[in-house]
Amino acid sequence: MLLRAPAVMDKMREKGVDMKKILIVILVCLFAASASADVKRYTIPVDGSPFMGGENAKVTIVEFIDYQ
Amino acid sequence: MEKIEKEYGDRVKVVIKFYPYKYRDYARISSEAALAAYDQGRFEQMHRIMLKNSPRLDRASLISYAGSAGLDVAKFTRSIDSKKNDRTIERDIKLAVSLDLYNTPTFFINGRKVIGNVPYEYLKRIVAEEMQK
């Protein structure tokens, strides 16, 4: 596929396809995809586990711990 | 994490789940000790003492820490010897396994996973981001 890329691009140029425009479209799509990609969040049940700090705090940190 | 706890106080809630490594001698009994302290309402005190004295976490040491943490030592000893909180520890281990955790500590900050002993600045950045949401 990669070996044929120059040939494919030549053919596209022949047919009047603007390579620059295509490149810009691809870049915009990638940027949009990464901008909308949200950080992954796990739902961790916390009932019955000991906690420190504020019970109704805005930020909850669950720590999996090994004391040793 | 201790720095984060000091800095944010009641603005964060730090929930502790136990993931003792099977092949470390005192990992499991330490978890029992922490929960025994929780039963007596002195979890944080015991938690801090154990972190400070790790890896000296054999049964005799734990019993002496329990005394320092202000616990009823007889009750504490019965609790760890009888593995009173085994079910909670098993539950936490099952949860950890279901989440594919392979390292401790692993943190979930409003559900965002952070693996290992990352620098304070990194934790702070994520906590600060979550505070602003």
Can you walk through the features of this model?
- With 68 residues, chain A is of the alpha+beta class.
- Chain A contains 2 helices and 2 strands.
- Chain B folds into 2 domains: 48 residues, no CATH class; 81 residues.
- Chain B has a two-stranded antiparallel sheet with strand order 2-3.
- The two termini of chain B are 21 Å apart.
- The mean pLDDT of chain B is 96.
- Chains A and B meet through strand 1 and strand 2 of A and helix 1, strand 1, helix 2, helix 3 and helix 6 of B.
What is the topology?
The complex is a heterodimer of chains A (68) and B (133).
Chain A: H1 5-14, H2 19-36, E1 51-53, E2 59-65
Chain B: H1 2-8, E1 12-18, H2 27-39, H3 43-53, H4 59-68, H5 73-81, H6 86-98, E2 106-109, E3 112-115, H7 120-131
Antiparallel strand pairs in B: 2-3
Helix pairs in contact in B: 2-3, 2-4, 2-5
Number of helices of chain B: 7
Q: Tell me the Rg of chain B in angstroms.
A: 16 Å
Poorly predicted runs of chain A are: none
Integer average pLDDT of chain A: 83
Our estimate of the beta-strand percent of chain A is 5-15%
Please indicate the count of domains of chain B: 2
Report the total helices of chain A. Answer: 2
Largest sheet of chain A: none
Oligomeric state of the chains present here: heterodimer
Report a brief summary of the structure.
By secondary structure, chain A is of the alpha+beta class. Chain A has helices at residues 5-14, 19-36, and strands at 51-53, 59-65.
Name its key features.
heterodimer; A: alpha+beta; 2 helices; B: 133 residues; mainly alpha; two-stranded antiparallel sheet; 7 helices
